[in-house]
Write a structure and sequence with these properties.
This protein has 13 helices and 13 strands.
Length: 315
């Protein structure tokens, strides 16, 4: 039975977690499973686009030989894998759902609320339940102006806690990418680009932030993860997978949209937890249809790579 260490004692977590039938069978059989953040799918798009994206992501994971496990909180339970009715429920939800990080989970379960998970919460749940690989669009990071606001995403800190591989297209373009990379390096997070030595800027390929290492195949990524664990190196591992150039948003266009959104947020006094959603909303509006096409391709491609790595780890 799944459990975690808390305050020197052992606390059963099985009463708080519910698995889809597909995910439970896969974990029992030792087959590869990929945990997927729900915020990047169900919050990022309106119905039915969010439902379509969820199905595309899950189909891609299955095609690569792994089992998809979207992570969410529904009616006071942590869901590891969603049944079709639950996908429909989250996608068509009328009111905005909480975007949960690590700090929110216990309160959400206490209040029996519904929530989508950000990368940090998805990593935490994956680590609790024995899932080795997590995927999403992009991680949070150090926000622009963090030297005065101290606004740094909990996603970065989670890499120091949860021993999972995270496959994403770098960090969101609205962030200070150089400081985000510096934070990860300072906290000794194992990070590599996938066939690149540049940190991708979410839906744009280029950021100008150089990485020291690249990994060239799912086999190499899985080997790196195994060696890290055999050496006892704690924390997670980040694989930055750049979006295909054919689907990428032009970097200059992206930067202009971000600058406009950041300035508007500052003028309206938008801060704290809601600022990412606010700024991304403006950016997507500025970019129009290019944003949707890029985001769909990016999420599906990341899911495919994550599944390939999960399969290599399981083997």
């Amino acid at each position: 039975m799944a459990c975690c260490i808390l305050g020197g004692g052992r606390m059963k977590i099985s009463e708080y977690i519910e698995y889809s039938a597909e995910v439970k069978q896969a974990l029992d059989d030792g087959r590869p499973v990929v945990a997927i953040e729900t915020a990047g799918t169900f919050e990022a798009f309106a119905y039915p686009d969010n439902k379509d994206l969820a199905n595309l992501v899950m189909d891609r994971v299955r095609k690569e030989g792994a089992v998809p496990a979207y992570i969410a909180v529904i009616n006071g339970k942590v869901k590891v894998g969603l049944e079709s009715a639950e996908v429909e429920y989250l996608a068509s939800h009328k009111e905005p759902l909480v975007k949960a990080s690590r700090r929110d989970i216990s309160i959400l379960l206490t209040k029996q609320m519904d929530a989508l998970t950000a990368v940090a919460a998805t990593m935490m749940v994956a680590d609790m339940t024995g899932i080795k690989v997590v995927t999403g669009g992009g991680i949070g990071g150090v926000h622009r102006g963090a030297e005065t606001s101290f606004d740094i995403s909990a996603d970065l800190e989670e890499f120091c806690k949860s021993n999972v591989v995270v496959v994403c297209s770098g960090a969101k373009s609205i962030l200070d990418l150089k400081l985000t990379l510096e934070y990860l390096e300072t906290h000794a997070v194992t990070i590599a680009g996938y066939r690149t030595k540049e940190l991708p800027a979410y839906m744009a390929v280029h950021s100008g932030c150089k990485l020291d290492y690249s990994l060239d195949s799912p086999t190499e990524a899985a080997k790196c993860y195994r060696i890290k664990n055999e050496l006892g190196v704690p924390g997670g591992m980040l694989i930055a997978n750049p979006i295909d150039e054919n689907y990428a948003v032009d970097s200059e266009l992206m930067n202009r949209a971000v600058d406009k959104a950041v300035a508007q947020a500052a003028a309206e006094g938008i801060t704290g937890k809601v600022i990412t959603k606010y700024i991304m909303g403006i950016v997507k509006k500025e970019l129009g249809g290019d944003s949707k096409e890029a985001s769909f391709h990016m999420n599906v491609d990341n899911a495919g790579l994550a599944a390939a790595i999960a399969k290599e780890i399981a083997e």
